Amino acid sequence: MESDKIEDQLALKYDGPQVQSGGMDSYEVANNIVGFSEFLRIASRKTYGDQVSIRTEVQGFKSGSFGIDFFFFVGAAAANLLVSTPLETKDFLALIKEAVKAWIHLDGKPPKSLQPSVDRRNMVQVENHKGDIYQFNADTINVVVDPAAGRAVEKFIKRPLENDLSSVEIRSYHEEEPVARIEKKDAPAFLPVAPEKPVLDNEMTLNLLIESPTFKEGNKWRFSDGTNSFYADIEDADFLTKVDAGEKFGKGESLLARVRFNQTGEIPGSLKMERTVVKVLEHKPATANGLLFPDPLKD
């Protein structure tokens, strides 16, 4: 059920000889609390935007295996603000689970390449340094490549496991099974893995609905691919010559064009997508029954 807030009780559970023989160092515990709280803050804002309010509170400690309980709340920062993406606990827990898998997949190194999935929207094909490729949600990857998120998981996952601990579990009181379980052998994977240079550069042929043409040199045109609206530069000199000569553009018209996608991780904590129209293949009139486009991902 969709909601305008998330409330959950989460827990970090540590196991291993250190806690079985008497507990954890107070400084280590404090570091774990700060790291996990920071990770939750980054993940929620990457998913739901800066207008959400995030609150984490330490609820208590458990002995045996060492556990720290957190109360976690995400909601609109003010009563008159609307969150664009519905807030659902199960979706947020799924993001945490998938983020852990993505860090393990990358194995402590930046992605070798990121490619948009050809058959699943909002999914990214992530290639690690070994050449293995798996698909992850784009929101998940935006969290994982955030340097601050990498430093956070280093605090509450990597460092404890490099000491005398054997496993870390992230648990929710909404689920019987752990949201995620990380073993000692996977500790080296939990580091900042932000790409240091552009990680995607490819071209696709797309039908682009013209939403807002511009006739001022250097300005970007606004297009829609049938699902998303975006701005793009146009490099095609022949097409721009026709525009300068007075070629007309009307409501509902589109371009069949080769579009280059360039995605980078140079801005901390995000994947920035730049789109450029390399070649206009056809200027198409409006369809008789409105805006009907073939799926641009099924080129």
Oligomer: single chain
Overall geometry comes to: elongated
E-strand count: 13
Number of discrete domains: 2
Order of helices and strands: EHHEEHEEEHHEEEEEHEE
What about the largest sheet? Answer: 5 strands, antiparallel
Number of helices: 6
Sheet-strand content, in percent, reads 25-35%
Structural class determined from secondary elements: alpha+beta
Considering DSSP H and I runs of 4 or more, what fraction of the residues is helical? Answer: 25-40%
- Evaluate the radius of gyration: 23 Å
Q: Average pLDDT across residues?
A: 79
- Main sheet strand line-up: 2-3-1-7-8
The end-to-end distance, rounded to whole angstroms, is 35 Å
Low-confidence stretches: 77-86, 288-299
Compact summary:
This protein has 299 residues and is of the alpha+beta class. The chain has 6 helices and 13 strands.
3D architecture notes:
By secondary structure, the chain is of the alpha+beta class. It contains 6 helices and 13 strands. It folds into 2 domains: 5-98 and 138-189; 201-284, OB fold (Dihydrolipoamide Acetyltransferase, E2P) (Beta Barrel), CATH 2.40.50. The two termini are 35 Å apart. Strands 2-3-1-7-8 form a 5-stranded antiparallel sheet. Strands 9-10-11-13-12 form a 5-stranded mixed barrel. The chain is elongated. The relative contact order is 0.15. Helix 2 (26-48) runs antiparallel to helix 5 and helix 3 (89-106) packs across helix 4 (138-144). Helices cover 25% and strands 35% of the residues.
